[in-house]
Amino acid sequence: MKQAERQALLAEARNLLTRGLLGQAEQACRRALESSASDVEALALLGGIALQQGAFERAESLMQRCAKLEPKDPSHQANLGKVRIMTGQLSAAVGSFDRALKLAPNFGPALAGKADALNQLGRSDEARDLLARFVSAKAETPDVGLIFATLAQQTGEHARAIEVVSRHLANPMVGGIVRGRLGLVLGKSYEALGDSQRAFQAYQQANAVRAESSQFDPLAYVQRIDRLIGFFTPERLTALRRARASTQLPIFIAGMPRSGTSLIEQIISSHPRGFGAGELTTLEQVLGTFNAKAGGRDAYPQWLAHADQAIIDEMSRAYLHDLGRLARGAQRAVDKYLRHHHHLGLIWMLFPGARVIHCKRDPMDSCFSCYTSALSPTMHGYCSNLVHLGLYYRQYERLMAHWRNVLDLPMLEVQYEQLVAEPEPMIRRIVEFAGLEWDDRCLRFHETRRAVRTLSFDQVRRPIYDKSIGRHKSFKPYLGPLKEALSQPQAQA
Asked: Which of 283-297, 364-378, 407-421, 434-448 has the lowest mean pLDDT?
């Protein structure tokens, strides 16, 4: 392959990656690798794609390979640190960032990454000290400014956060994901200061940027829900095969993002026999592998009707092997992947004996929190548009109502507002439903020190609070499109 052809493929991969077309970007990278299996540029891009896909082990392996091939390039160590943050290896991540900083002491991605990891380890003072001299000199990169502003928000220094973020937003060269995240941080500080007009303007501008990476198609999504409901009927369920091995290890949390899923995971993981696995993508990876093996004969979920017992058992084992390796002997392991509501029919097939906790929250609060949070625009593209958010929520409700009607899965529904109002009785119900004996540490969940790999890592380290209930009411004049979308019937395509 000629150099010009290789460069064109890598440029195509970067463009596809920016647009959120991960599968096509991966294909372009692999074509570039055909001429050289040690093409570091292509390998690094593949690692970034794997990270966005949630294939963390593959991403880490690719980043390690890049670091070995180019040991003096700090970007590879910084990328490795980023992967390790995502997998909860926070101390190892700090080590990776330190190696990058040894090679390049002022390297922005490594400074920002190390500060992020330190903050998640509860060492926020160290994180701030690491960045302060760069910010004081106004010499920080946008990603360093983003982390510094986030740290300032945690201590109530919202005017300082606004000053730092605004400086970077004024630079037209700052774009993409970083610009979107800067805008969300700006909105949060204005909201904390009581300026809802400026806050919403910042949120709106941030989501306009984030929408550029969204591939969410409302009609296609409704059709997807239609297919799931149309396939998993009471009649079909009697004919579908289920895995022969019964297990009580996994507890699957279902619900919209920002509905209390991290809080419930933290409660169970505070039990000495509980483990919080975070937002595992394992189930979707297993499903993707077997979709490919099905040869495209039928679109998912139709091919499940023809799946033999060996395939169902193999899918179950593949997931449980990964979960068991992470759980390290725990009696219950919580998987809070944010798209589980799509897969409860598959979960019913693969894991007899498993339990599901469904987290519910006021629709307006739930959707507005999604709109103002830095959820991945690749996985959660609907979050950057209020109308799309309302439609997605209504389809989520429609699908969950269907699962409740047709599946005999043990399911506990937890209303976030009730959990906040009556924490102890609700926490006792959660622990009992999980099949665990009572332990007072579950009430003191905020004292549990563990890696929390979600946007809520700081929130679950505090006692339950109610300030987020009714949050959307301060933005009522701006949320008409969301309210209207939520009022629409749960139409089928």
From this structure: 283-297
* CB contact set of 376 (below 8 Å; sequence gap of 6+): 52
pLDDT at 288: 85
Instruction: Give yes or no: residues 107 and 128 share one domain.
Output: no
DSSP 377-414: TTT-GGGG-HHHHHHHHHHHHHHHHHHHHH----EEEE
Q: Which residues, 6+ apart, have CB-to-CB distance to 440 below 8 Å?
A: none
Shared domain for 376 and 417, answered yes or no, is yes
CA distance 451 to 443: 19
Query: Residue 398's closest CA among 363, 349, 373, 352?
Result: 363
Residue 492 inside a domain? The answer is: no
Are 362 and 227 in the same domain? Answer: yes
Inside any domain, residue 493:
no
Domain count for the chain: 3
- Could you tell me if 99 and 134 lie in one domain? no
74 and 140, same domain (yes or no): no
Is 412 within 8 Å of 429 (Cβ atoms)?
A: yes
Domain holding 249, by residue range, is: 218-487
144 and 281 both lie in a single domain: no
Same domain, 22 and 102: yes
pLDDT tens per residue across span 160-173? 999 999 999 999 99
Percent of the chain with pLDDT over 90: 75
Per the DSSP assignment, residues forming a β-bridge with 253 are 357
CA–CA gap between residue 422 and residue 399 (Å, rounded): 28
Give 117-139 pLDDT, tens digit per residue: 999 998 999 999 999 999 999 99
Q: DSSP letters along 410-458, please?
A: -EEEEEHHHHHHSHHHHHHHHHHHTT----GGGTTGGG------STTTT
| pLDDT at site 493 | 47
Helix (H, G, I), strand (E, B) or coil at 282: helix
List the Cα angle 144/147/150 in 5-degree steps: 150
